[in-house]
Amino acid sequence: MKQTLQLKLSQHLALTPQLQQSIRLLQLSTLELNQEIEQFLSDNPLLEREEPNESAGFPVGNDALATPKPVAEEPPTSSYDDDYNVPSDSNWSGDAPSNHTPRDSNDGEDSDYADIQAAATSLRDHLGTQLGFTQLSERDRSMVNFLIEALDDDGYLAQDLEELLDLLMHENPDSDREELLEELHIALRHLQNFDPLGIGARSPQECLALQLENQEASPIRDLALILVRQHLDLLAAHDFVKLKKVLLCDDVALRSAHALICSLNPRPGAQYSPSDTRYIIPDVVVRKLRSGWTVNLNQDAMPRLRINRLYADILQRSRGSGGNGSGAGLNSQLQEAKWLIKNVQQRFDTILRVSQAIVDRQRQFFEHGEVAMRPLTLREIAETLGLHESTISRVTTQKFMASPRGIFELKYFFGSHVATEAGGAASSTAIRALIKQLVSAEDGHKPLSDAKIADILGQQGIVVARRTIAKYREGLSIPPVNLRKSL
User: Nearest CA to 374 among 438, 333, 313, 431?
Assistant: First the structure.
């Protein structure tokens, strides 16, 4: 057989460690960031934390950071509660941080121990361990790991694959977009086969469907799949009469399918989230100056990092003498330390830019409160700052702003909106505030109906449907008109 040489061109995904770290740090809360930094400090002797009033060493950057000081306490909220309502008579509660399949009463001790063990292991560590046991190629592993880093605390892939693809294309401009997107889809299928079942879902429906698909096929399982995929809204509304007509099933089958769905876990990643109290550390502080509303970074939330002088000197002498050995390892750790310092600085710089852009657009809110909140989208801020929407989404999640009006998550300033007669739009936050004002000022003997509130807002030029008023009223925990009437 004749031997020949062949030249083959191929594209490789260049998902650099620095890019992965930058993405990860950007989506961490301040508390999580400091936990991450503590791990780096224990692993890398070339990185150290500069103590207050200490000037020795190799300080990096202009921003000072010290140990964070909690200033407020507030439990995290889930972004999935608005996607569906859960039957109130089921064990599946949308208000619970997590829920699991019902267990036997005799296995309490073992189950409690398992829960403690799960809480001690982060979701990403748990998935990373499974990834290490797969037979995937290095490229596929990088793609799956990229998706793992994009998961939220409940185990959902909150960002669209197209948004994640844009991020990859920015770092790999020569890659074929369609080919890269297909690889992302394949990586997602791999991830969705990991434990816990339902991980990597992009919606509650997909999460429940993934869990059902892994159960043994049966008529009840198949009926539950149809309910989850096509009629979850009717099930949440307890509209069993309509469901039986649509599905052509009897009452026994529907109740069995309902019970099966209620045994599933709509938040598969929550069991790996810390269950202790979480404190809010504002990333930025808003103040009103003569020039207007100004945003500054919270110095107590920012870690002050630098390169260790002792080890840096050792490395410099090693380079000067042409030595090898330990110098190579130190050189690698020096580069990692520089990456971390740079990415931490970039994280806070981005948070500051985004926060100032938000404040610039919501000046009236800080002046007058919720009723003056204006409609705002991630895209608007992204276009203003020349960033991608996915970056704005990461920056505004679990990042907090302290202001004279209180402490708010940056994501609070974004939301849905409704049309006005003038052709503009009104923020849903402002509409909720108006509803609260109208109800608080109503005559107890003649309370305002949802239709009447819609009419009043319409007279102010805000076009809101009665069902939208009802939705907002229920979200504010305001009883319906018949329950608000005084005797």
Answer: 431
What would the two tokens of residue 218 be? 């049966």
Q: Residue 374 has what DSSP assignment?
A: P
Q: Which tokens sit at 273?
A: 């989230």
Give the Cβ contact number of residue 138 at 10 Å: 8
Beta bridge partners of 156: 201
Pairing between β-strand 284-289 and β-strand 400-403 as defined by DSSP bridges: parallel
At the topology level, CATH places domain 416-484 in Arc Repressor Mutant, subunit A (1.10.10)
417: which strand partners? 427
Structure-token match 């990834």, residue found: 131
Calculate the alpha carbon distances from 123 to 1, 50, 248, 338, 444 in Å. 53, 31, 41, 27, 50
Distance CA 277, CA 75 (A): 7
Q: Please give the pLDDT value at position 381.
A: 93
The DSSP code for 57 is S
Q: pTM of the predicted model, to two decimals?
A: 0.51
First vs last C-alpha separation in the chain: 100
Q: What is the pLDDT of residues 425-476, one digit of tens each?
A: 777 888 888 998 898 888 888 888 888 898 888 888 888 888 888 888 888 8
CA atoms 424, 429, 435, 438: torsion sign: negative
Number of alpha carbons in the 13 Å side-chain half-sphere of residue 211: 23
Cα dihedral 330, 332, 334, 336, rounded to 10, equals: -140
Q: Are 264 and 213 in contact (CB under 8 A)?
A: no
Query: What residues of the chain score a pLDDT lower than 70?
Result: 1-15, 52-120, 274-278, 319-329, 416-424, 486-487
Type and span of the H or E element at 172: none
Q: Where are the beta strands (DSSP E) in 334-405?
A: 400-403
User: Facing residues of 446 across strands?
Assistant: 443
Does residue 77 sit in helix, strand or coil? Answer: coil
Using CA of residue 329, residue 332, residue 334, residue 336, what is the dihedral sign? negative
- pLDDT the model gives residue 123: 86
Q: Which residue has the tokens 């110095």?
A: 299
